[in-house]
Predict the structure.
Amino acid sequence: MTEYWYNVNTHEVEEDALSDWTQLIGPYKTREEAEHALDKVKARNEAWEKGDED
């Protein structure tokens, strides 16, 4: 099964983790999910920060 990864340096989606793991976010099941990796990271960070305010 193909896995998709988002490369934070190149801002591109990779199939099957071609780069060093320190540059990647994933794995994701679809290319579309990987393309939106930074959106997911941003949402998680905002939720975490909101939790710190409580």
Residues 37-53 form the longest helix (17 residues). The two ends are 41 Å apart (CA to CA). The chain is about 40% helix and 25% strand. The mean pLDDT is 92.
